[in-house]
Each structure stands twice: as structure tokens, then as C-alpha cells.
Amino acid sequence: IVNWRTHLKFPEEAKLSPEAKDLISKLLCNVNQRLGANGASEIKVHPWFNGIQWDQLYQMEAAFIPEVKDELDTQNFEKFDESENNAQSSSKSGPWRKMLSSKDINFVGYTYKNFEIVNDYQVPGMAELKKKKSQTKRPSIKSLFEGDSETTD
Fold first, then answer.
1. Which helix (H) or strand (E) segment is 76 a member of?
2. Last residue of a domain, one of 35, 57, 79
3. Runs of H (alpha helix) within the chain
4. Taken in order 95, 96, 97, 99, is the CA torsion positive or negative?
């Protein structure tokens, strides 16, 4: 959560126990203060997990075992009215949504990274590594097909 100190509020209607609120707060915080930053044992001893026998977890019977017919069986998932969801999402997302084509879908989740900045950052030993790499000779593609030993930089 961005600005979690400002935005993390627990509504009264949620009816969360103090232990649950504490667990959530300790998971949604700065990484160095986060519950579990020093190992899973921190999480296991949190009061919200009192009564859980961690060493016997794999031997315990699950509270719910779903019946699944095959790998495409979705009967255990909540059902939604697709036409209602499409109408809501298109009205909320605005006109740009209609402009997306199938080629745009290929870039969903793509993140641009500026490697020039990374390359300009001075890392100890990087100059020597770049120099060594530039001195390495590779065989040319032509030599692979013609059999001579010509090399390129």
C-alpha cells in the first residue's frame, strides 16, 4: 500500500480482532520492519496464529477439500455475470479501453527499464570487465559458413 500510514484504515464494519489488525499492520509496512523480515518464525509466533501446530500442519485434515473433476473444472470459483462486469469496466475505464487492440494486449505488464542509466552508474570493477569484453574476439558468421578463421569485434 502506497503511503500505508495515511491510507490503511480498518472500517468498524470489518469486525476484525485486535490480533488480525496487528497482523495486517505488521505485514503492510516498511520492509525492514515487516513481520517475517527476520524469518518465518516471527510470523508463526504472532498471536493471530495461536493454536496452530506448525510442525503437524501437513498431517492435519484440511477444513475444506474441493471436489475437482478435471484441470478445467471451475465449479469452486465464484460465478460472475460477465455482461454486467463488462458494462461496468468499460464505463469506469473510459474511452481508451475501446482503443486497445490485440497487439496492445501483448504489452500488458511490460515495464520499461532505462539501461543507459544503469550502464552509466559506476560499479567497482566494471571498467575492467568492459575492457576485457571489448578485447574478446568472436568468429565472424562468414567464417562459420566458409571455414576460415576470420574474427570480428
1. none
2. 57
3. 4-7, 18-27, 40-44, 82-93, 96-99, 102-105, 115-120, 126-135, 141-146
4. positive
Question: Range of 12's domain?
Answer: 4-57
Last residue of a domain, one of 18, 41, 57: 57
Whether the model pTM is above 0.85: no
Q: Which residues pair with 139 in a beta bridge?
A: 151
Three-state DSSP class for residue 68: coil
Q: Is 11 a domain residue?
A: yes
Whether residue 35 lies inside any domain: the answer is yes
pLDDT (tens digit per residue) in 102-126 = 556 666 666 766 666 666 556 666 6
Residue 53 lies in a domain: yes
How far, CA to CA in Å, does 100 sit from each of 22, 110, 124?
42, 15, 44
Give every CB contact of residue 37 below 8 A, 6+ residues apart in sequence: 31
Kindly state whether residue 12 falls inside one of the protein's structural domains.
yes
Our count of domains for the chain comes to 2
Cα within 13 Å of Cα(114), Cβ side: 4
